[in-house]
Amino acid sequence: MATIVFCTANKMAQTTTRQCLIAHLKRFGNARETHLLFSSTHSPSVTLLPGTRWFSRATGVRFMSHGNAGRSAAGRIRRGALALSGAAAVTAAAAVAGFLANANHFQCADMAKRVPPDAEEKEQERDILERCRGFMSPPVTDIGVLQGRREEMLTKMEMLIMETQADFCRALQEVDGGVFKVDRWERKEGGGGISCVMQDGKVFEKAGVNVSVVFGNLTEGAAKQMRSRGKVLKGKDGKLPFCAMGVSSVIHPKNPHIPTVHFNYRYFEIEEEDGTKQWWFGGGTDLTPVYINKEDAFHFHNTLKEACDKHHPQYYPNFKKWCDRYFYIGHRGETRGIGGIFFDDLDSPTQEEAFNFVKSCARTVVPCYLPIVYKHLNDSVTDDEKAWQQVRRGRYVEFNLVYDRGVKFGLATPGSRIESILMSLPLTARWEYMHEPAKGTLEAEMLEVLRNPKEWV
């Protein structure tokens, strides 16, 4: 049986390992900010493949061959306020749910253009096992299966969502000092997920980053909903095999001057009676501040716009409007936050081009949010500001439980994991009867923006 050696006393092996780690870590930040720390510390391991072991601890990962006491390696990235680079409750439920924001479905067939491959795109060619070392947990799908179908979209997307989860979790751990609880779960109907949650930290009251990869047969309710969106689905013997996967995150900070952020990127694939497959992508990133800060709003939206503009100049304005329409609390007459981008049913111009767009969006979650966190890390807080934060969190809960189709669908779908679906809810919130802020206050300014969405870029 072949042996894969990651770290040994052999100088050549150490050099090769170091080069691989550096190449991986450069994705996260400036090369000057990348540090490789070597130690001989041991920790419990999980066997992935014969001859290899997985070691994980906080912000680093170590590797060893056959359990021998070889050298170990850990990568740690220090992030500065504005020097960062490319990381609700959507399990597969949001991917299944999706939705059409208005009667005229936004068609992308004539909009996207191919983005020339660059060094970032060539990452996909790296060995699957090498990339898996940096994840928060082994992938949901067996690594051997991923290696065997490395060119298929199911593998490409699962690797992307696992990397997005790991990148964002480590960025949040770096600023908070806490550690995410990694919770693997299985769905008896097929598949499972990895929920990473950090509660009551120094900076974040609740931070959750979920990955799910599920498969099976669509329920009639799910199929009916998709047909209502214009999908023509032809099952065999009444069955529609599907696979859905996605990464979803909601972050609720303690300081009311640090906004709540949500993102979700997902992929759905259905096999029809004749063996053909329908596929589409969906997702987006949006910001929910308690107080308006125009510089923060510009930074957030501009980062998303730059990612969208790589693919087509109309992506950002169209998906920004879609976001404002979707995250709308109808009974309050206000949006949930200041928006971002949102899209669904993206199935053109080609599968690879659609995936490259989703990848560009997923890699903005760290640079669009972490600079804002660092900027307000030490802002002073009054009791009135905390009280207003609690009221705004109540609105967040209202949207998720009353309007969010992913949450509602998940709660009604057999086999869904309720803990992961309700991860999006804050630890604390408040509802005051007929609450209305006084005119001329910062709270009133925030409410005015929510009732009349603005263009920030």
TrEMBL record:
Q: Which residues fall in a coiled-coil region?
A: none
GO biological process terms, alphabetically, are: protoporphyrinogen IX biosynthetic process
Which pathway does the protein contribute to? Porphyrin-containing compound metabolism; protoporphyrin-IX biosynthesis; protoporphyrinogen-IX from coproporphyrinogen-III (O2 route): step 1/1
Source taxon at top rank: Eukaryota
Swiss-Prot/TrEMBL catalytic activity: coproporphyrinogen III + O2 + 2 H(+) = protoporphyrinogen IX + 2 CO2 + 2 H2O
Q: Which SUPFAM superfamilies does UniProt cross-reference here?
A: Coproporphyrinogen III oxidase (SSF102886)
Q: Keywords for this entry?
A: Heme biosynthesis, Membrane, Oxidoreductase, Porphyrin biosynthesis, Transmembrane, Transmembrane helix
Annotated GO CC locations: cytoplasm
Has UniProt tagged this entry with the keyword Membrane? yes
What protein name is recorded for this chain?
Answer: Oxygen-dependent coproporphyrinogen-III oxidase, mitochondrial
**Which organism does this record belong to?**
Seriola lalandi dorsalis
